[in-house]
């Protein structure tokens, strides 16, 4: 076979026709690709993350026998001052049915920085006021607090403390807090508010239902000191384990014993199971209970007078803590089992 000569004539007509065919083919291919034909179907976009829910405030009912701190330092007063509870906020006072006494309400606000946690706390108790400043007809004194940038404001029937004010609005924030607290004091006593978590939780935020007085007495062998402390998350929190809320109840005896039940409630039961399994399997020294409480449970070694039992129930991860210089009179595991059995199904 002879090689084509370099001087052979070029068939320009053929090459032009070939180029036209190639161009038409390329245009068709591009149109086909742009249309998505022949490609795998695109995955639908992921559903949007559900909005985190806020704790709902329910107006108190019945006659007020005195000022309640959480009915004075209400969430709208905190919000009007440009503040927002960062996590848990706490309320302390006499047990229901006991004589009126000192109550307190508040918690961390704003964004903490290392070693500096801005907090607001109102305590209802008698105070001596000597100044002439007034708001809504209520006299008050203002003076520096215990730490740098801390401020205390005394009203005749309550005391307000705000720490690290420079981190959370300074003078403008303080003025609004004073105005809101004074307005509620001037309006007179109101019953303590109630709380509820909306869907998907749909439950009243009553942490001390999990730690009734009778259970405390059975565990410690002593009556309570007549006071109770409660804390609740002001807003659902996101975590790697799953979205959750948290609330706790603490009771104490005159013998310096404290018992705390903390309920962490997840949107999904699978998250509660996974978290309970992980903690029981990874906390140093924690061991399985001889007789399990619920599906997953474990107990901590008694260190520093503190003993804990963790268990899972439905959507809840529950932690029972006993703290004293001596062991409890009753059985801590039996108390955990009673709490488990009393929780809503």
How would you portray this structure in words?
By secondary structure, the protein is α+β, with helices and mostly antiparallel strands. It contains 7 helices and 16 strands. It folds into 2 domains: 58-186, no CATH class; 199-342, Protein Transport Mog1p, Chain A. The strands form 2 sheets. The protein has a 13-stranded antiparallel β-sheet with strand order 5-6-7-8-4-3-2-11-12-13-16-15-14, sandwiched between helices. Strands 1-9-10 form a 3-stranded antiparallel β-sheet, with no helix packed on it. The chain starts with 11 loop residues before the first helix and ends with a helix. The model is unreliable at 1-30 (pLDDT under 50).
> Would you state the CATH class of the largest domain?
Alpha Beta
User: What's the arrangement of strands in the largest beta sheet?
Assistant: 5-6-7-8-4-3-2-11-12-13-16-15-14
CATH topology call of the largest domain: Protein Transport Mog1p, Chain A
Query: What value does the Rg take, in angstroms?
Result: 32 Å
**Sheet/helix structural class:** alpha+beta
Name of the CATH architecture of the largest domain: 3-Layer(aba) Sandwich
Residue share in β-strands: 25-35%
Biggest sheet record: 13 strands, antiparallel
C-alpha geometry: globular
Which residue ranges are poorly predicted, with pLDDT under 50 across at least 5 consecutive positions? 1-30
Tally of individual helices? 7
Span of the ends, CA to CA? 92 Å
- How many domains? The number is 2
DSSP summary, beta strand count:
16
Which bin fits the share of residues in helices? 10-25%
Give the mean pLDDT.
87
